[in-house]
Amino acid sequence: MNPLKYFFLIACFWVATVTAQTQTEKIDALVQSYAKLGRFNGNVAVARKGHIVFARSYGLADREFDIPNTQDTRFRIASLTKQFTAVLILQLAESGQLDLHAPITRYLPYYKKELAEKITIHHLLTHTAGLPDYTERDDFFTEISKRQYDHREFIQKFCSDTLLHEPGTQYKYSNAGYYLLGGIIEEVTHDTYANVLQKKILDVLHMQNTGMETPERLIKNRAKGYNYGPSGYSNAEYIDISSTIFSAGAMYSTTGDLLKWDKALFSNKLLSAKSTEMMFTPFSSNYGYGVGTIKSFVPDLKTEVHFVFHQGAINGFRSVMTHVVNEDLVILLLCNTFEADPNPVSNGIFALLHGLPYSFAGEEK
Prior knowledge:
By secondary structure, the protein is an alpha+beta fold. It has one domain (7-353): Beta-lactamase (3-Layer(aba) Sandwich). It is 30% helix and 19% strand. The protein has eleven helices and 13 strands. Strands 2-1-13-12-11-10 form a six-stranded antiparallel sheet, with helices on both faces. The longest helix has 17 residues, at 20-36. The chain is globular and about 55 Å long. Residues 1-20 form the signal peptide. It comes from Flavobacterium agri. Residues 28-350 form the Beta-lactamase-related domain. This is Beta-lactamase family protein.
């Protein structure tokens, strides 16, 4: 899902203060209003300056066994995965194993040559390669996503379509670009993406509740994904997420682990200051490397506020993560009901924390 769609709703807020006790009670009441109407089901975490100020679970991880969501529940994080892919690419660039501005034909010898000679890694990272998004195909969710492919086969079949525009000229959000980045990581390291992710990030940060999902793997405390409609809840449709989404969105995690990730990302623990700055610098349509990034002047503050953010959506799951750089404030929501859009909840929490008007579920204008 394009991370920029909902974000502009909160880009011009001014800042006020609320007591910590009132914050906790009000955030809980706000989220409960959505949960009671089936419009949120999952975990919420808010952290300021590296310290968790709010963490609660809502609804059920498994509706057939009435197992509630807890702080240990693992959710698919969908396109939040792109941040991790971007960091792995930047780490390889820092070590001299690849050049961000080199054509990808240097790293993917099996890729369609006429495309690979035009597209650079920088284009893939910024969604400016001109590649169509294979998830927008009419047959993706009904047919393609239910089959198993090796990554090379999938790239050749579904990430090699005719370009929509010349690389570097326009922004077009595309999962194909981030799938290709995963393929490049595997080619350059001669290892699997999952192994590189584990060694270079997850082990370093002790993210023990995070990894890549595969159909055969048993994952303790994993939430089941659901749809919600007029007839109530139903199971989300099957998707072979490891082979058809891969490095564009196949990770699972917890709110606790993602707060570890956020803290490391903003403290240069994984990347140099130069690489981190590149990652958070918008190139086109307020997108950097794996994240949306906006510096917006807020009239009431008479200053510029820097937001770094992304959201995700995959069968049965939704996610949204926003970091307010000026305040070192993180708002994170992981949800295991696809129709339960977490964006209004996230925006409401932001408004509440800053003394702005907000609405409970069902009261929105």
